[in-house]
Fold this sequence. Notes:
The structure is a single chain. The chain is built from five helices and eight strands. The protein is an alpha+beta fold. The protein folds into two domains: 15-105, SH3 type barrels (Roll), CATH 2.30.30.60; 107-219, Alpha-Beta Plaits (2-Layer Sandwich), CATH 3.30.70. Strands 4-3-2-1-5 form a five-stranded antiparallel beta sheet. The chain has a three-stranded antiparallel beta sheet with strand order 6-8-7, covered by helices on one side.
Amino acid sequence: MVICSIVxxxxxxxxxxxxxxxxxxxxxxxxxxxxxxxxxGNLLAGLVVIYRRGVNRGDIIEIDGFTGRVESVLVLETLLxxxxxxxxxxxxxxxxxxxxxxxxRPGASDGVILSTRVGIGYEEPQAKVEAMLLEAASRTKGLKxxxxxxxxxxxxxxxxxxxELFIYPASVEAMPRLRSGLHxxxxxxxxxxxxxxxxxxxxxxxxxxxxxxxEPRKA
Length: 219
């Protein structure tokens, strides 16, 4: 309505026919069109997101390095609450263009699978390393009993074999704490067995094994 009024009144503005006034008008039109393009893009993206329901309020998603619970799906933006209670505004155009993981939409069979990787020297027996990782998983609370955890040899790197441990969380509500508990149990098991974890970087064998002392953990 406002734009229509401006268009109708434009010829009656004093000096509207001058070259200087027309130049300013063109300049303002360009600025307005450039500024509104992102708004219109987010608006259209928001309508698509809302219509196809790829992301709903309450979903736990990961996008652009942020993981959290969707608090609102608005026309222009989606609000994400992180585990640190930060509120992140994600333009809806990013939801369509970025790689997005929705942990609240698991597969129809076994649900969400999480994984973590460790690099272990070639001198360690494969069966021993696999058993240690599975033991760490068995000590971690919040995992499904069935299907159980499993281990894959993900990479034969220059100085280490990269083992990847896959787990099935019973719930995706507390993934950061679950990952932290899993990593703590991996460290405990490998320290108990005096096996060095050689990731993320490895240069040479130290003169003495770099093993942390085993400390009793609180139940």
